[in-house]
Amino acid sequence: MNSQQEQVVGAAPIGPDLSVVICIEQRVGNLQSLLDIYRRGLAPLRREIEFIFVVAQGSHAAALGALAARGEIKIVQLPRQFGNAACLREGVRLAAAEDILLLPPYLQVVPSALPGLVEKLADADLVVASRERRRDALGNRARGAAFRNVARITGSRFDDLGCQVRVMKRGVLDRIVLQEQIGFLPVLAEHAGFKVEQVRVPQAADDQGYRSHDLRSYARNTLDILSVGFLMRFLQKPFRLFGAIGIFLTLIGVLQGIVLLLQRANGVALSDRPALLLAVLLIVLGLQVAAVGLIAEVVLFTRLPATSTYRIRRIVGRAEHDV
């Protein structure tokens, strides 16, 4: 009986140790050569690795079909473009391993640096790569520095949020509400209580050429910074923001109204002056803004009573208190 059990256990299939998720976007390299490069870079890990490509229907179908026919990758096809967050969620959901490596469909870092990132995950929940950009184009470095400084609004301490090379444990996404702010995943994860490490890695030569972006991408990144900054500071207390703005506007309106009343007492006519209308408008606007914040507080209190924006790393004590 024991020998039969040992045979069954020994015959049980062993799943992959690392899942590599690659979301296909607008900027895409040669997928067949890219897969070979990533495989060679990860070979020193001596792990069983699965590759998952998430792509919209019809996008790069020929190249991915050739790889899938060889049984080298798993393809997740979406009916249309749903954004990077949807691609990431579906790729992670279908990943078989607990350790997940996120890679872009083009080279951003030297592939030989990938094993070091994965091994660093033993001491962290999320490891992000930061490119050493000494040889990068001047325009790229200037744009990266500007983005890094503006991103401080969100509380970010990371040097290269534009680098999409990250290694994480599966449980990270369970605590994070991720919309389209893929670049701010390290910031949101650290805010939720996960341990996030940043590792400097060499930049790939293919990534050092000047890259131009349209105005839409700049506007989108700016809006993402503002939205993440708001979520980080006021997600659980929106009335502090809207209430402060409302009180400020109301006080300005009241002070202006007092000044107008004093002027009227001294015989100054107000019938042909728009200042009185402006004072009333400020008071009403301030009350409305404050009411929006109060309504948001009520919604959070009644609709989301059991949610938390933190996590418990461990409980030290007797066994019955462990979770």
TrEMBL record:
Gene3D superfamilies for the chain: Spore Coat Polysaccharide Biosynthesis Protein SpsA, Chain A
Segments traversing the membrane: 241-263, 275-304
One cellular-component annotation, GO: plasma membrane
InterPro entries from the UniProt entry: Glycosyltransferase_2, Nucleotide-diphossugar_trans
Superkingdom as given in the UniProt entry: Bacteria
Keywords attached to this entry: Membrane, Transmembrane, Transmembrane helix
PANTHER family recorded: UNDECAPRENYL-PHOSPHATE 4-DEOXY-4-FORMAMIDO-L-ARABINOSE TRANSFERASE, UNDECAPRENYL-PHOSPHATE 4-DEOXY-4-FORMAMIDO-L-ARABINOSE TRANSFERASE-RELATED
Designated name of the protein: Glycosyltransferase
Organism: Sphingomonas aerophila
Classification lineage: Bacteria, Pseudomonadati, Pseudomonadota, Alphaproteobacteria, Sphingomonadales
